[in-house]
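Hi all, posting the design record for the shared folder.

TITLE: backbone redesign
STEP: 1 of 1
STRUCTURE INPUT:
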């Protein structure tokens, strides 16, 4: 089998998704987001998970030039078999899992965190991160927006990133909407938007507004296909799979740390000087707690 078939099929899905019907769009997004499940599951299980009919996947296969659903799924299954590797849990994790009380909860959560961090970092490309850093450093203004749980990630990215990139602004400010703060944005600016499923209306609308103004867009999210109409310049994808009711952001934080490393490198001596000045300022203003010596 052609080893590039899976990659080419995924690329065709992402390229064609904007022109698909709503049902086909849902099916295509499911495959892009869950390639491993698609490679493993039957057509009925795939349709159930994607919440569309089995016919939708058969129709999508025909549109992409495959004779059947099985032929469509085959490159994804083949990729799983060729990449499969049995990696044993580390000793400490096996010990945790063997505990009779909350060992299962502890081990499952830890195993999930290790997995999503690994998978989130594996999919990143140094060339892409370098291009993103260049785009941000060269921008007139860098706007950064997120709401709800994603806001915590945005706050951290802004807190550290502004030391390397003083043009970075966390929006919305002063209880405005992000669109208010983007009103004066121009083609020389960049918007970083962080959002995960279910995608926040405010964030998507801010992205669409920014793109209409010619602002470049960087999405940090959990899918390569958030909204087919957005066409971001770059997308950083992190897994947020979780063992509980809310997304696990360990993988996304790992990706943000990668981006920060490239920003710090790209910022050079000026960035290092700004970091040193912040540290000096905090020390001079007693920002850090110091234990009193006992007399």
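Okay, here is what came back for every position:
SEQUENCE:
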């Amino acid at each position: 089998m052609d080893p590039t078939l899976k990659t080419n099929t995924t690329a065709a899905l992402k390229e064609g998704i904007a022109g698909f019907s709503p049902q086909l769009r849902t099916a295509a997004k499911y495959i892009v987001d869950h390639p491993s499940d698609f490679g493993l599951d039957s057509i009925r299980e795939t349709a159930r998970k994607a919440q569309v009919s089995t016919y939708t996947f058969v129709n999508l296969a025909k549109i992409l030039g495959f004779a059947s659903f099985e032929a469509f799924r085959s490159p994804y299954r083949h990729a799983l078999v060729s990449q499969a590797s049995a990696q044993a849990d580390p000793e400490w994790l096996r010990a945790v899992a063997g505990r009779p009380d909350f060992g299962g909860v502890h081990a499952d959560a830890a195993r999930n965190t290790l997995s999503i961090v690994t998978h989130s970092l594996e999919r990143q490309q140094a060339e892409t991160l370098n291009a993103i850093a260049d785009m941000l450093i060269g921008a007139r203004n860098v706007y950064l927006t997120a709401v709800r749980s994603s806001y915590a990630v945005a706050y951290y990215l802004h807190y550290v990133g502004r030391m390397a990139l003083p043009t970075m602004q966390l929006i919305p400010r002063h209880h405005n909407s992000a669109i208010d703060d983007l009103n004066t944005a121009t083609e020389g600016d960049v918007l970083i938007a962080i959002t995960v499923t279910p995608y926040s209306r405010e964030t998507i609308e801010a992205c669409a507004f920014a793109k209409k103004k010619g602002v470049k867009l960087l999405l940090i999210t959990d899918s390569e296909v958030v909204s087919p109409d957005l066409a971001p310049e770059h997308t950083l994808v992190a897994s947020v799979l979780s063992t509980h009711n809310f997304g696990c952001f360990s993988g996304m934080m790992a990706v943000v740390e990668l981006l920060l490393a490239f920003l710090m490198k790209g910022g050079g001596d000026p960035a290092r000087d700004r970091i040193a000045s912040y540290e000096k300022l905090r020390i001079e203003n007693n920002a850090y707690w110091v234990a009193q010596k006992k007399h």
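COMMENT: DSSP finds 13 helices and five strands in the chain.
Let me know if anyone wants the other runs.
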